[in-house]
Fold this protein.
Amino acid sequence: MEDIKVRLEKFAAEHRMLSKGGLSVALVVTRHAKARGLPLDPNSLLTSGGGQVRGLGKSRVQAILKDHGVTRVLAEEGGRTSRGSVGKMEVYVRFLNALAEEGIADLDLIESWWVEKVRDFFAGEPFQLRYDPSKSLRHIIGDLLNQAKKRQESGPGATFAGTMLQHLVGAKLELVLGEEGSVEHHSASAADGVTDRPGDFVIEDVAVHVTTAPGEALIRKCKSNLDQGLRPLIITLNEAVARGLAEQEGVSDRIDIFEAEQFLAGNLYELGRFAAAGRRTTAKDLVAKYNAIVTKHETDPSLLIEERA
């Protein structure tokens, strides 16, 4: 039988429960289970209007955390206004009921596990957008990527820089195309080589590859794109390396290669109509798009970006 903590890890990842709203739901529902026993009827945990989870609010969530010595505020609304909280409650109730049927629903252990995830959430502070109007847009974007690189250096095996770069590129593509749903996004862990996708993004006949460290495998993928009638475009932090590899394979004149910071900053002036206020608004729009993509496709909230006052 799988360890209960392993089951919790899988459940939390599959149902994206590690956001503020998801964690709040898990804490409140677990406390309901401790008070009422299992199995739970999900309908009994709905408010009279049926649109919210009973007891889900800041005071209740903070009271539970306080029992474990945690005093920081997880969410001002305790997840109450988070869309999808009812759905998260329902799938979590089914999960707890299944554990109860197997006789392994240790609710004290489960509650403590979720509290540890809250501590992890607080430990994973978001990246900071330091918007300084005296600095170039390229410098501001470079600062974000440097933050990701530094965090990656302190966590062997982590891919913060690559993940941030992929989703910043995806956010920029959405801004430029201007159509909701015009760009298909994926978790950064789902490499296109593994999933047989032509690239990280495919726009019309262009296969876009985003990488911090281009290698021979990437150039082979680009050659495959060419064989399929696609135009490969590489966006990378190591433009010189990518160009050198493309030259070795004799395809340097058939692959477009862009330096990442330049690519990301490239259209922000136009989108902001070259005005100072427009540049700041566009930078914020880029980050807002990025955060929406990360929230939907990644499970690590520390990948989010917030503007520093």
The beta strands are 127-129, 201-203, 206-211, 231-236, 256-259, 305-307.
